[in-house]
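User: Before I run my own analysis I want an independent prediction to cross-check against. Here's the chain; please return only the structure tokens and, at the end, one sentence I can use as a sanity check.
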Amino acid sequence: MTHQFPSLSPEQKKELSEIAQKIVAPGKGILAADESTGTMGKRLQKINVENNEENRRCFRDLLFSSDSSISNCVGGVIFFHETLYQKADSGKLFPQVIKDKGIVVGIKVDKGTAGLNGTDGETTTQGLDGLSERCAQYKKDGCDFAKWRCVLKISDGCPSALAIAENANVLARYASICQQNGLVPIVEPEILPDGDHDLLRCQYITEKVLAAVYKALSDHHVYLEGTLLKPNMVTAGHSCAKKYTPEEVAMATVTALRRTVPASVPGICFLSGGQSEEEASLNLNAINQVPLHRPWKLTFSYGRALQASALAAWQGKAANKAAAQEAFCSRAKINGLAAKGEYKPSGSADKASMQSLYTASYVY
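Assistant: Structure tokens:
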């Protein structure tokens, strides 16, 4: 066995751990606003708005300049490279707008997926080349955490041992590089909801994937107290005939996490994975009510499930800005309550919040 060589100083560890805990303070989660230009285009297309830089900036300005009470339920915002250097209508850079609210600024650093030859369409994620230099620059530009998404899928032969091992390793390498540069890495091994598999199969695969991820993080000497996990909830495949209750989803999810995620990880921020806004909130609430010990914060890192109603209310019109902000704040507050297991549905959820946000083989 090799000796332990120093990797991070006590000061670096303290900073990373404090950032991670600030993001997942009680009742707080993450707004994922790091959609790529292409993905943002698909969102805007649904409301018949042209995909140009100004329209993308306008929608994100609407989110970021919402009432400062948003900081009670949003602890971090993930930016896309373009957005990090854009300005609000007020003339202030977006990261400063977010920081002024006491919210932590994050950045997506991966470069998308690449096929693994000889597999059934499985992928790894690229972007390790030059990552250290990019992280150093992002830290200078006001970021304190980063995100990297790996994607696995469930089918007859998937995920393969190769896909599990390769994605676990690339996530660990990314996490190690982030920490060296003062960024808290969000580790995201997303298992897609595509398929007709049942809840138990998803739970089994989630356990295998997370066990591999945490073994790789250990091998790469990643400081777990200065990381966050962004996993899928354990749900049945989108085409599964059987529908499960939030309580069943919650029990399967928490059981899988208790078996695989060390207690030293400060927080687990679920991705919404194409669930409707209301479904994502109900499932998160049930997760926080499971009668099992949960040593980590269990909260949200939602993109579509925080933005869908706001997008529908906005429709690209300046006159609708206040209504769209109201829709966003309302959904963020609901998720803040769900992150504490305190959401009580009123039964009056509107149409936009009930709409499925599922996209097959979702590319971020």
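Sanity check: The CA atoms of residues 232 and 271 lie 6 Å apart.
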